[in-house]
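Predict the 3D structure for this chain.
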Amino acid sequence: MRTASRLTGAVAVMAALAAVTTACVGAAGRDDAAVVRASWGDPQHPLEPANTNEVQGGKVLDMIFRGLKRYDPGTGRAVNAVAESITTDDQRNFTVRLEEGWEFSDGTPVTAESFVDAWNYGALVTNNQVNSYFFQYIEGYEDVHPAEEGARPAAETMSGLAVKDERTFTVELSQKFSQWPETLGYNAYAPLPESFFTDREEWLAKPVGNGPYKIDSYAKGQSMRLSRNDNYSGTDKARNEGVELRVYTDTNTAYTDLQAGNLDVADDIPASQLKNAERDLDGRYVNQSAGIIQTLTFPLYREQWQGEDGRRIRQGISMAIDRKQITERIYHGTRIPATDLTSPVLGDGGGYSEGLCGRTCDYDPEQARKLIEEAGGLPGGGITLTSNVDTGSHRQWMEAVCNSVNNVLDDNGACRVKPVGTFADYREDITADEMTGMFRAGWQMDYPLIQNFLQPLYYTDASSNDSGYSSEEFDELMDRANAAERSEAVKLFREAEKVVLHDLPAIPLWYQNGTAGYSDRVEGVRLNPFSVPVFTEIEVA
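Done. Predicted structure below.
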């Protein structure tokens, strides 16, 4: 479980990153008229690949980094990027060969050491990287990241990583993991240049990556400017001169700017505008399925949510939420009531299980009241629902959820909305374990596997386990699934998901489509399966 003390260094470094001003705008001969202007929100953490696990920071990392794999923007399938090949004879020992010619935006080469050093840095417990968990399957992880809180590491590098030559390294896992190569498009596995290790503070002030874009400037609360990386070696080169990510704390303001021609891409259409967005934007509107689920999560580290009574209350709250009515009235075809914890984009063969939640996800007012009454009523006589309200039209759906619960319980004070102004402040409250009532904790997949919808959120002490949930049965099933071949693995992952749905640390709400609008100044706008604009494909008229 993460604690408040782990945020101290991040705050200082974010200040350093924010200190980069707009003095570089228009540098390197960039034609600002060919720059895409897009909506954005300040990231929670510094832009280190292993220290970013939220959408806004991840959006930037997708632009400035490429790992061994990348995910095809159309299919979501993992395809080689920096990797020329990843081979194994036993699903445990892998040999990675890099494609020749890759460089960072500062002109230095991407080598085997660039990956090995970055992964060792990300895993080392004293570096406080929130995504360190993603390296747990590499042999020697427990030596650099001991399980006991406060324990010193026995080593600084993982024994399972070995550089063989400039373009080759080997990876030994601690157990078989047949799908491991498919996870390597996630940003935690990105390489880092030598400059990161020689002067980390300077690097964090202006990150250097190997992706299709490079950062020119960042003014916190205002914007980040990125330009095309002319040293980029990948096939998905940028078709524009760059991107300006403009910070908005209100999606309605972004939408108004889009309509006025002051913004080119807004990838979070306000719920209040969804009904008329296609008409308002003359057809320049995108509504695509995405690997996103929204849930209500509970702080199981609070006594009032523990035990069998706590589980009954959570189940009763779930059955008091009229998902169908809320999604129809607020979201107009852009949300689908959830019946499991994954996403339909995975398909049945990938682990999506329609109806796996059973009656718990059905709207049943009578049973909801019965369960809550049997548990002694709501803790403290009433509950709160919390989310940030600067993005995502969250206030509207939170009010609708609370109204649904209040109507079922015939008590207008049973559920109250408790908004937080910004996403960064909201996430800091969550990671500091300061939540008391239920809170929004949706998931946007990192890679298109059922494992990704379960392990980071519900495995004991996992990086995004915001509820503090822990189950030996679930952990054991996940370990077995990771070691199995794909068809058997999916079955075991589903069994693990059933455990979570029984314990209910989080309530599935709805699957989320990606929505976006764009101006008549740009073309080629689409979203990838992660609901992020494919910026490299956007062309400016």
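Confidence is low (pLDDT under 50) at residues 1-28.
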